[in-house]
Amino acid sequence: MRWAIGMGVVAVASAMGCAGGSGGGRPPYLGTFEYRYPDGLTILVKTTDNDTLYWECLEGEARGQSATEKCDRREVAPGVYFVNWIEKDGTAISQVVDYNRMTVVCNIVAGGQRFLSEGTLRRIE
Q1: Which candidate, 51, 95, 104, 108, has a CA 20 to 30 Å from the CA of 32?
Q2: In sequence order, which residues have a C-beta less than 8 Å from that of residue 88 and are 6 or more positions away?
Q3: Is the pTM value of this prediction over 0.85?
């Protein structure tokens, strides 16, 4: 699996430097973010709508790999979102992204194994 190995993953889903949730205006997940994990994995995540996200591995084992994913995203608390998608190779990614604290908890299921990791977000644009 491209981003699970050595990571505990992403992103994935978008890093935003703004707090807040559904209180009118622009959702906090829209924009471009950098997700960083303790093992050095760095993922760029771009989100322009509620149903898709683009990710690109900047550092780590999967450096240079990227994809656009169809995802499900639900606000579970103000400014906190659960994001889930399945990649073309069958890898399942589930994340809880907290835009108030700029953190992500990511679970990856790939090749019969599970990987769990926590990381931080930084809003780029």
Answers
A1: 108
A2: 67
A3: no
